[in-house]
């Protein structure tokens, strides 16, 4: 078994803090635009509700609105964490549309920056270390692409400018603690089969279990520590098992020693996953927020 060469950072502990530190957003769209009514939580009364054998709870009929793009419907609330296609159970390339919250972050100046996840129509969560060197500069050159599966095609991809970057005030660049940042999008994202928000973890809940639970990590990162090939052409995925805090600490101690291990590890603000040789999320690590495999973190 390999060492735990990477910590898969959890949203559970720090995201609420980061969000609370963010300044109030400017005027924003209060509704959502979707092109699939199954994404909409709104309770819509259908005229057929009174007909026999047509329960109103099973009906959801929306009318396209002029304030949404053509082919999109307006609703007040959307479901999260439900891909239009279930992920493949194997390590390798991602099945198209099975990770619709995956974000591709790039800059006109720096090129490919890393990955992130879409949490709602205006906000993408990423690692603070990906953007910390540019938070004090105008972020207008940073763009987020949603719906991207291969870097060779922009079909059905929405590219949005970043208007603000919010970094957790407790971020420690040396030991990567509180390593969370939020990218505020200048314009809202419209949801579709290949672009959907992920669910946030439940605050205070521990995802370190006695049974074997896998995290699914996705991104365009390097395929080898010795080959600088990020971003790769096609979105990739790997399953990594969550391990106990004690096992993680022991593994890190073997490599780094007790002092550095204590400095780097920050339970309960993170969890460890991995331990399998050549399978991790640290090779030019995109931000890989963990999701439970059936089907996502809820």
From TrEMBL:
Entry-linked InterPro entries: Peptidase_S1_PA (IPR009003), Peptidase_S1_PA_chymotrypsin (IPR043504), Ser/Thr_Proteases_Immune/Dev (IPR051487), Trypsin_dom (IPR001254)
GO MF terms held by the record: serine-type endopeptidase activity
Gene3D superfamilies: Trypsin-like serine proteases
Pfam families according to UniProt: Trypsin (PF00089)
Any GO BP annotation: proteolysis
Leader sequence residues: 1-20
Record-stated family: Belongs to the peptidase S1 family. CLIP subfamily.
Protein name: Chymotrypsinogen A-like
Source organism of this protein record: Sitophilus oryzae
Taxonomic lineage of the native organism: Eukaryota, Metazoa, Ecdysozoa, Arthropoda, Hexapoda
